[in-house]
Amino acid sequence: MNQADGIRVAVLDDYQGVAEGLADWSGLGRDVTVDFFREPVPQAEAASRLAPYGVLCLMRERMPLDAALIAALPSLRLVVFTGGRNPSVDVAALKARGITVCNTRNGEGGIATAELTVALMLACARSLPREFANMAGGRWQETLGEGLEGRTLGLVGLGRIGARVAAVGRALGMRVTAWSPNLTPERAEAGGAVLATREALFSESDVVSLHMVLAPATRGIVGAAEIARMRKGAILVNTSRGPLVDEAALIAALGEGRIRAGLDVFDREPLPADHPLRGLPNAVLTPHLGYVTEGTFRMFYEDTVEAIAAWRRGAPVRVVEA
């Protein structure tokens, strides 16, 4: 593609329709055409629909970009994805084609995700969705909530987000424990928790919250055995990645009323309208809102525009290496 002939930019998965207003895309020049896609592009249609574009702007992992799709996009010259890392993008395949890959800053996603984790925990403990619906429907209180002071919060993963959740748990008067494959007693203490064994964390916690990066070693790290160890009525919160949990085992436990769950992430996103999780009264669901704040999105899109402009000048910024 000859840049002098004009550049077509695809901004994908702009679910809320906010990308255009959060950055000055016009500053890219009159020869740049920017199209904003609010609806997800089905993988089966991606090659044909995206073929004309020289630049793809990806929102986190919403749109997988694998080697097969990359090979089917002859005009592609630049990919910009939001956030610091994106395991759904085959960077090596892009580099092999000579395609530049850039990212953006992370924004306030870590802080916002920790906040949402606590919101889901409280929503489950106090049956808030049901009582919201009661008030909207003209009814009055129907549930008995439970306090969290003195209860045990078990964190699977104690990184940046997990440590923030630990701090809030302590502020609520909760006992905070943590486990991850490489966590030591010293690192647990530094993160505001007490190291527990994997078995003890699931069997003793009133709330279990997941804060792990999805990788081959962590996929399904919460399986049927871990869910079976959880106390009756305990709460499982997942704001990290859906595939960390065995979805079938989780649905079975929820269907039997053994546990409750606050879920922001799912194996398949967007979550299908007829997915069984949607019909479970003991599951509080949000549509992957952890990082979705105005401040984060403004940074994402401003950085995206900056990356495109810098690439056009021949001095790309925040270049991602394979």
Automatic annotation (TrEMBL):
Alphabetized InterPro entries for the sequence: D-2-hydroxyacid_DH (IPR050857), D-isomer_2_OHA_DH_cat_dom (IPR006139), D-isomer_DH_CS (IPR029753), D-isomer_DH_NAD-bd (IPR006140), NAD(P)-bd_dom_sf (IPR036291)
Keywords attached to this entry: NAD, Oxidoreductase
GO molecular function: NAD binding; oxidoreductase activity, acting on the CH-OH group of donors, NAD or NADP as acceptor
Domain named D-isomer specific 2-hydroxyacid dehydrogenase catalytic: residues: 31-317
Pfam family of the protein (one): 2-Hacid_dh_C
Gene3D superfamilies found in the cross-reference section: NAD(P)-binding Rossmann-like Domain (3.40.50.720)
Keyword Secreted: no
PANTHER family: D-ISOMER SPECIFIC 2-HYDROXYACID DEHYDROGENASE FAMILY PROTEIN (AFU_ORTHOLOGUE AFUA_6G10090)
Residue ranges of domain D-isomer specific 2-hydroxyacid dehydrogenase NAD-binding in the record: 118-290
Organism: Methylobacterium terrae
Stated family: Belongs to the D-isomer specific 2-hydroxyacid dehydrogenase family.
Higher taxonomy: Bacteria, Pseudomonadati, Pseudomonadota, Alphaproteobacteria, Hyphomicrobiales
Protein name (database record): Hydroxyacid dehydrogenase
UniProt key word Oxidoreductase: yes
